[in-house]
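Lab notes, practical 5.
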Amino acid sequence: MDCWSPSLNVDDEFKKLVIRMNPPRVAVDNLSSRTATLIKVDSANKRGSLLEVVQVLTDLNLIIRRAYISSDGEWFMDVFHVTDQGGNKLPDDDIAERIQQSLDPRARSFRSLRRSVGVQAAVEHTTIELTGRDRPGLLSEVFAVLTDLRCNVVAAEVWTHNSRMASVVYITDDITGSPIDDPDRLAKIKRLLLFVLKGDRDRRSANTAVSVGSTHTERRLHQMMYADRDYDVYGVDCGPTCDRSKPVVTVENCLAKDYTLVNLRCQDRPKLLFDTVCTLTDMQYVVYHGTVIAEGPEAYQEYYIRHIDGCPISSEAERQRVIHCLEAAIKRRTSEGIRLELCSEDRVGLLSDVTRIFRENGLSVTRAEVTTRGSQAVNVFYVIDASGCRVKSETIEAVRKEIGLTILRVKDDAYSKSPPEESGRFSLGNIFRSSSEKFLYNLGLIKSCS
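Output from the prediction step:
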């Protein structure tokens, strides 16, 4: 066996040399289309090339209207029809150079983090990764623990799907503003957060990880939720709106060309292409050819794929797994609930206070994006009623008054149409509040749970 190692090493080094000699070339065409800018990328092919390009375009906040993908062989050639967020063509100035620089591996990690979570570089922060069963008040408990441990949250992103939660949180010491690297302190943070995540229902699958290093937040969240098997659908109640919003994914083998053909149709939204390509890559599939059309309310994607071993999908179980994983990738970023935007002077404990107020008013956070821009905290929360009922406008206004009407703004009109809340002493929100407060009291983080 060992006699083959030198040969394998030589082949690996030769592939690296070919890639170095043929760096990605980017061309921008603003003449061929009246409605979009064409970005053409070609380079020596390597595993993950498509994801790298799509990630760069996504992080530059470009909207991909069409895409034509071809990487069958030693060469990788893609054409993307893109616009800016306003639907306009891109200026000719420096977009090609910016994309080319972003595809440079030496620049990618820092650029990705900066775009995703609004901070300067991961080496300035300590990264915490959390996965576990979602429940009302969980985020409030997590931020309460971090505040008590003298950690300042400078950025975070939280996704929930299929009763699971994944979060990447960036913290510093609340006094020095430096990364936390003391092993004993990190072990304590990890231990208490794991205790919170496990609660009384998730003894086996909850997980925490702490590190100091760079990461692409959204890429990592997909990996975490995939590893946590959020795509499992057994015994899950989709709810009454499931059928209307469910994406249509078909997977069938194309025997004539020895590929597996994947077709996907769903409501279009930003970053959809990144989410599906990311999932196929994590599942160890290679996209050889593809077509993407997203010029209306609905998006259509078609991929010809094989496993990294060169084989198409070979079993019904594998086919169903691909379908469920792609459906999960689409739904993870789908924003359920009312969008609340918070902008205020940043301070230690801000997130703990805000999420506590959500919890006390019976609101559960389904998704969160936390950023720090200079001295300002700019946060986005999607909230639902923790009891499963429609969120009342009175509840939202009560939360806004407690946090600050000018600080917390609503970016959703649906809640204002809900009927007035009935009077009465019984409230499921109070039940969730009591449960969370009892849990935090047992951790010693609040003085009374009465």
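Observations recorded by the TA: Residues 1-5, 106-122, 238-242, 416-433 have pLDDT under 50 and may be disordered. The chain is about 35% helix and 30% strand.
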